[in-house]
Amino acid sequence: CSGFPLSIFFIVINEFCERFSYYGMRAVLVLYFKYFLHWDDNLATAIYHTFVALCYLTPLLGAIIADSWLGKFKTIVSLSIVYTIGQAVLSVGSINDLSDHNRDGSPDNVPLHIALSMIGLILIALGTGGIKPCVSAFGGDQFEDDQEEQRSTFFSLFYLSINAGSLISTIVTPNLRATECGIHTKQRCYPLAFGVPAILMAVALIVFVAGSRMYKKVKPQGNIMLQVCKCIGFAIKNRFRHRSKEFPKREHWLDWASEKYDKRLIVQTKMVLKVLFLYIPLPMFWALFDQQGSRWTLQATAMNGDFYFEKYLIFFSSYVHLQQIVNPILIVIMVPVVDSFIYPLIKKCKINFTPLKKMTVGMFLASMAFVAAALLQVQIDKTTPVFPAAGQTQIRLMNLGSVPATVQFQPQLQSVDVAPKEATDYMIFKTSQLQSLNITSRLLNKTQSLEGLLEGKRYTFAFQEFGKDIVSNLMFDNVTSKPEEGKNLIRFINSYDSTVNITLDGKAIALLPPFNASNYTTIPGGNRQYTINSTTPLSSCTVSSKKFGFGSAYTISINDCAQGTLNITYFEDIPPSSVHMAWQIPQYFLLTCGEVVFSVTGLEFSYSQAPSNMKSVLQAGWLLTVAVGNIIVLIVAGASKLSKQWAEYVLFAALLFVVCIIFAIMATFYTYVDPNEVEAQFDEQEKKDKKDQGDREKEAEADSKM
């Protein structure tokens, strides 16, 4: 079809479905750890990167199986079955009702869910990692030796299918997660979010098997990995035995294996080791790249996700996931643009833009992406509220009355003037020093004891002049961080002179006696307005709320009712996130540009420089760099002990920049080879040797007859 083998279309469709399955599951994985299994940010991030690392460690196993025993086709089919089972187990493990026997909305047997989830993830890692080096190499096998241009286009098309699957799944699965499902109690629908990827993996398996008769299947050529390892081991051992100066040096240290192994294997091993040596710096790129799904996702939760086009184009259940689709969208756009315009333009300028130069540029762009992320994090930190540390207590003063007041913290700590219908910022005190506070309003005075306040907590002291007295309420603000997932918290305090029944959009919130406060109620983030209703025995009043934004907390004072309209006052406990998520787009753009020139090129480079019987092994080596990169994240993040997230971003950017320079130097010493040409020379030599051997045997036979 247009010069391409028809079989590759089955492979591309299979890859699309498999990547939909993988990235769809991964898009909600960190949130599943955090909100379903109730792990903290650091543990969720650590397990996430451990899983990703495992997904990229197992390609080595898959490559050995494919090249040594089963062949690529059977390996892909076998491990795809394991993959599908793993997705199904993970989906079952996320069913809340599986152990929610008391029907309170929380799993009663959390270890059961953790065990099922971990089993599922291990099977997924084995499946997706095992088939990863085989699928791309199997696609490359479908082309003839003279179809280099078509093969190059295939790798771009193959990478495009990966990101198309990623793009669609990253839109679909978060929305599936946002729906509520359950038998006894309605929860975030993780079973559906994980179940649909399981179905897509089954579809991928069926599509791949359907094209079986069209495939060009290269038979496995023995345990080549074992042969290579033995060849390297023998060369090192033999060189050590002959380390004396009396033995002449050889051109390459692997030539010391020539006493036991044939020259073809030695040359092929040299080719593989040359490429693997170049792979040493590459994990640092992936250490940065894969933080899109962890650190950058958590960064987005502290930002303003107010995208006005959501209601016009598509419904996004979680504004955090809106950012996750930026990378695949940019990939789908950038791959054809770079392939069809940028590279040809560079070629016309007569610039020798070799694969290794492309990869160097990709690493530099990724480094700059993390510089952009660090600059953005600095701005986010400026808007993040400060919460009390150990040994500290925060107190805020709230004057609900119509006259000013002065508050004196005892013993002579601080004096604060508070205007009517105003609140101060949170003030930090050493808990051990707080004894009491004294309120003075006109001619009225009141003293409030502050003994027994908890360390590391926030309190709001609300007061109001009421007749000939000052009424007050010391409220415990049970909030020590910004609300999760961009949600908002609101509570009500009744400064009216009678008991009020408060509802929010018809939903009962609290029945509040005078000067009592409700607990915080969680509402979704966004620009939605709510109808607040206050009912007393004598009246009923309503008012439309303000737009609360994302990640805010408010105390709403119920003041009075006039002609059916409720009079309220807003007090900002935690300000909404003010840094817009659109500011993440530059870092995504830089990282995506880096990925296009680094990853696509790396796939093609790995295949083009590999001997025919070691292509899956070299592909696995390429994917192994991703695993090491995720391990680097765990090591660096754990060892750096940096308290500021922006500093960690700068650290990663600096490390990759240094590695980029090292890789550029290494690349200048690399000599490109054509494995097919080298192997053709060996084939020709073997034919000549066989012919010479035959001629000698004939001559010997003729001589014997004489």
Automatic annotation (TrEMBL):
Q: What is its main location?
A: membrane
> What SUPFAM superfamilies would the database entry show?
MFS general substrate transporter
Stretches the record annotates as Disordered: 682-706
Membrane topology reported for the UniProt record: Multi-pass membrane protein
Stretches of Basic and acidic residues bias are at 684-706
Any transmembrane segments, and where? 43-64, 76-95, 110-131, 152-172, 192-211, 271-289, 325-346, 358-378, 617-637, 649-673
| Pfam families in alphabetical order | PTR2
Origin, by domain of life?
Eukaryota
The reaction(s) catalysed by this protein are: L-alanyl-L-valine(out) + H(+)(out) = L-alanyl-L-valine(in) + H(+)(in); L-alanyl-L-aspartate(out) + 2 H(+)(out) = L-alanyl-L-aspartate(in) + 2 H(+)(in); L-aspartyl-glycine(out) + 2 H(+)(out) = L-aspartyl-glycine(in) + 2 H(+)(in); L-leucyl-L-proline(out) + H(+)(out) = L-leucyl-L-proline(in) + H(+)(in)
Q: Name one GO cellular component term.
A: apical plasma membrane
Q: Where in the cell is it found?
A: Apical cell membrane; Membrane
Swiss-Prot/TrEMBL keywords: Cell membrane, Glycoprotein, Membrane, Peptide transport, Protein transport, Symport, Transmembrane, Transmembrane helix, Transport
Q: What's a BP term from Gene Ontology annotated to this protein?
A: protein transport
Q: What PROSITE patterns does the record point to?
A: PTR2_1, PTR2_2
The molecular function terms of the Gene Ontology recorded here are: oligopeptide transmembrane transporter activity; symporter activity
Instruction: Kindly state the subunit structure of this protein.
Output: Interacts (via extracellular domain region) with trypsin.
Q: Which family does it belong to?
A: Belongs to the major facilitator superfamily. Proton-dependent oligopeptide transporter (POT/PTR) (TC 2.A.17) family.
Protein function = Electrogenic proton-coupled amino-acid transporter that transports oligopeptides of 2 to 4 amino acids with a preference for dipeptides. Transports neutral and monovalently charged peptides with a proton to peptide stoichiometry of 1:1 or 2:1. Primarily responsible for the absorption of dietary di- and tripeptides from the small intestinal lumen. Mediates transepithelial transport of muramyl and N-formylated bacterial dipeptides contributing to recognition of pathogenic bacteria by the mucosal immune system.
Q: What protein name does the entry list?
A: Solute carrier family 15 member 1
- Give the source species: Pachyramphus minor
